[in-house]
Amino acid sequence: MEIWRVVDELVCTRRVPGLGSVSLRVLKGQKGEVMVASDAVGAPPGKWVFTTLGSAARLAMPDPATTTDLTICGIIDGWDEA
């Protein structure tokens, strides 16, 4: 699992069938790296979240057949970025 900050919502009108209508978020890491993740919890921009990678990311989604390898699993309520 890794900690990221949600930067923005990602809107895509054309997707592969395995993504369906899954919410997508742009994430930024502590070292400045940027990734896109499926959002299983409805994380708004500005919030810190924790994610899971690989095949566990699919299992974290309501439909485990979702095509994803990075999923937001939770919104962090209190964490000091240090």
From TrEMBL:
InterPro entries: CsoS4B, EutN_CcmL, EutN_CcmL_sf
Signal peptide: none
Alphabetic keyword roster: Bacterial microcompartment
Record's GO cellular component terms: bacterial microcompartment
Primary site of residence: other
RNA-binding as UniProt keyword: no
Keyword RNA-binding: no
Location relative to the cell: Bacterial microcompartment
PANTHER family in alphabetical order: BACTERIAL MICROCOMPARTMENT SHELL VERTEX PROTEIN EUTN, ETHANOLAMINE UTILIZATION PROTEIN EUTN
Name this polypeptide is given: Ethanolamine utilization protein EutN/carboxysome structural protein Ccml
Biological source species: Thiomonas delicata
